[in-house]
Please model this.
Amino acid sequence: MTNRSRRWRLAVVATGLSALALLVAGCGPDNGQNSLRPTGEQAKQIDDLIVPIFGVAIVVAILVGIATVYCAIRFRARPGREDRPKQIHGNTAVEIGWTLIPAVILAVIAVPTVSLIFKLSEPPAANAVEVTAVGKQWWWQFDVTEKGEKKVVVADEFHVPVNRDVHMTLTACDPSLGTRPTGGCNVIHSFWVPELIGKRDVIPGHRNELTFRAEKTGTYLGQCAEYCGLSHANMRFRVIVDSEDDYQDWIDGQREGPAVALADSGEAGKLFAQKYACTNCHTTEDSSLSVYGPNLTHLASRSVFASGYYKLTRANLIDWILNAPSMIPMESKECRLPPGPDNICVGMPSFVENTPPGYPTMTRDEATTIADYLLELK
Ligand SMILES: [Cu+2]
Model:
């Protein structure tokens, strides 16, 4: 064997092995985002549709594969043989056959598919929890409410009761930016919690809806499933499915005012509201307010922050407050105000780099003081 063809074979084997490794890496049943392990009523119905259709697809793939390999071997070029095998152009029986068979397969598949599409868009039960998901670059705001009750605005994760319908309204228009010429509308995102419900796009200027019902308590991982820019891959979230009692405890707690009022938070409050004006984009005072950044009134009750990318620990929080853009790619740089008509300010500013002229630079001690205050907001 020449050196060149040996290298070729090596390259082919290496590529094959890495492709296999990638494939196997996706197989773990416990990655938290396995749509083939559904635990929601609707996710199960979708799964019940996917599995048989996948079966049909595999049979078709095997038959086509066998036919291809057979033809490649049977009609390969050989010395002393004509270049082209006998042509069968215009064979009516064959042409009708390969038009009809796929048409029939598709028609059969269409029946359960279309009926499931209608079933999934049936209105939710009367006692459904209402959740509005606002897709922002690059995190999710969730407004959770029940008929007639005060809404609760959270970020990154929200709780729902087990065995009860959750009716989602999906929007890409930020209510806090509603006065801007664009109506505060963002780019397209997609809401997806693989184990609970199939994905649905979140479209600027359009209201999409979705109903799901979880059948088991636990934490379910979600992910933005429509490319939306710089930090799309980090745009995660969590749905925490609680027993009815735990859910009631959670929502009651979220409806309350802050554990420490801003006015009583001393030095931290001054840094937060005045020196660094975090209040330009955040509130720690009222959990029913929709503002540009995440509502922080009950930040300390969350397990994660920054779109679920970081665990909520004191060390992580201090680093974030000092220099958020160094932890997740953002376009905020030196911006201190929510985006205006002609500035691009997506995300949270750094308080130690790119500080605009006239603005103070934050010390680690100051960040620690703010973090300790935020960590009291259970
Ligand atoms: Cu997105």
About this structure: The mean pLDDT is 91. Residues 135, 189, 224, 226, 228, 232, 235 surround copper (II) ion (CB under 6 Å). The domain at 129-243 is CATH 2.60.40.420 (Immunoglobulin-like).
